[in-house]
User: What shape does this take?
Amino acid sequence: MDAADLRIFEAVARLGGMGRAAAALNTVQSNVTQRVRRLEDELGTTLFERHARGVGLTPAGRRLLPYAEKMALLLRDAARAAVDDGRPKGPLTVGALETTTALRLSPLLAEFAAAEPDVDLSLKTGTTAELVRAVLAAELDGALVCGPVAHPELAEERLYDEELALMTAPAAGGLEQVLATAGLRIVVLRAGCSYRQRLEEMLARRGVVGLRLLEFGTLEAIFGCVAAGLGVTLLPRALIGPVWAAGRVAVHALPPREARVETVFIRRRDAHASSALGAFVAAMRPAAQADAAA
Assistant: This one.
């Protein structure tokens, strides 16, 4: 058993078929099939069950898969480490919450691109749950998420503190009046959004349960629905500011224990932290420190 065999095995397991794995690995299906059979012969056990739609893992295959995934990550990191001479360069893929991107990253991205022209930066947005999964799967080099995460496989650095506030339509009345509204609806991003979870928990502590959900994919859609009186939402106060100033919504302050939330940067502990990643995190720290001192 060698690294090439495990790489082919992992691709077949991930993609669910010999042909799909062959296409992804830029080889022919017969080569993939032969290598898988050789690996099965060497181990003395069957790794895949063949069916009409492709293949599925046997119990032995499921036990082997985590080791194959770790080997793939190790080989990728070894190659990256070998060419990392301390100068930020090459691909860098990071993730961030949509709110954090709007509040914190917009000016930083332009400055970073100018300062580090040899880094090919790609930014992907998502919910905290989505971004944590992507970092664990090594699909992202790191991500800005709501913290603390406290996952044993992840290193995290606290960068920003945000103040959350409840947002309603201007004519909705005071906070207690809003919460007493029959059939209260919350306007939220998709499942996995940390602000959505905090809003549901905050309302549950006040005895507001059985909520109706209006789920949208963008912040602008959420602002529009709240302004129209269709429901309430919970977002960072700094993000609400321009919308509030324009008179489109009303903003209700929360007790400090419910209002404060951390934004942390996470990465895999066992992954190579490239010079490009280090430069990106370093670029965020001055603004984060200034924000903390304000």
In short: The two ends are 57 Å apart (CA to CA). The chain has twelve helices and eleven strands.
